[in-house]
Amino acid sequence: MSHIAFFNIPGAGHVNPTAGIVAELVARGHRVSYAVTAHQGAEIEEAGATLVPYETTMRQTRNAMNDLESVDRFTTGDFVQVLRGLVTETEALYPQLDRAFAGDRPDVLVHDGLSGWTGRLLAHSWGIPAVRSIPTMAANEHWSLGTDGEYADFEPDHPGLNAVYGEIAAMLAGLGVGLTAEEFFGGSESGPALVCIPREFQFRGETFGEDFHFVGPCWSERRFDGEWSRPGDGSGERPLVLVSLGTIHNDDVGFFQACVDAFAGLPWDVVMAVGDRVDPGVLSGVPAHVQVRAHVPQLRVLREADLFVTHAGMGSVMESLSFGVPMVAIPQMSEQRANADRLVGLGLGVMLHRRQVTAASLREAARAVLADSSYGDRVRDMRGHVRRAGGAPAAADVIESLLVTAGVER
């Protein structure tokens, strides 16, 4: 029996897109180990993998993202901050996971393609094939979030760059992985990649080569997410709107109050997931047809939803498209703004700047999308692209091809 390992960073937007791949591999008879923090392990274990928990040194993702110099454009200072965090994390995780797998080396390793340095370095040290998992837009010489002037400001002479590159070189030498900093960065975009969006949603998708496998979303059902029943009269005859800002920038009480005020007088059913940092009790004037909960089973709600008011995190965007639901996007950071720009450009929804959200603007945007059937038509077309991308079975095929290349018997 082949042994396939996943190494991921702690974050729902990185772990959730791989859960379906794990379940598919297990169903095909592979043994799967998954290294991530215990907090993120429930879905992985439900999918059939053996959890290999590690202790992270990173601050919670939400805190790191809230410390960005600018939420509108990723700056060089932000880049330096992220690199320093990855150096610290890799120095801590590499020996942890090297020991954890010392007597049970995997045959293939799947690692996060954005921040999964530990997985990439261990695969190199162990001499096994590896594949990157990319949960958002991919990057090449024709397009990347970091080099597109719309979403990032990069200063090549920034004083922190040389210092952090020196720290990376010292880290590589200290770990003894046999790579220089130049080799490490030079190979960061090489090798096969599983991109969890359809090629049609990718900026400049036609420019990506055959090593980029645009398999689309690979989520699993997340049955542990809990139960949900529709607000209002439950008849399903009224439009259903889901509201969520994800798991990081979800502490904006003013935003959720604006949603209550926007939808209170409308003949719609509304479900608001406010996260664990907003007390639903502080929201005023919440009518019976507006359901406010800390968390909801998002996939379950999207199956019935007519509109999704979302922060435009890629996982949420792909889940919305998977169920044919148009969006009102309210991005909270530059990466999400790129996603929102793409969905607006493809006619899959509209976007509001987070500082422009009022009860009136939100109500107007929601009404516009629900009233215009062309949004639904284009979303259904993209849903077709999502399905044809192949999802978890297509991703599993790519991973199995690496087993064949490595001469591993199933």
TrEMBL record:
Gene3D superfamilies: Glycogen Phosphorylase B (3.40.50.2000)
UniProt entry keywords in alphabetical sequence: Glycosyltransferase, Transferase
Record's keyword annotation contains Transferase: yes
Enzyme Commission number(s) from the entry: 2.4.1.-
GO molecular function: glycosyltransferase activity
Protein family per UniProt: Belongs to the UDP-glycosyltransferase family.
Full protein name: Oleandomycin glycosyltransferase
Organism: Streptomyces cyanogenus
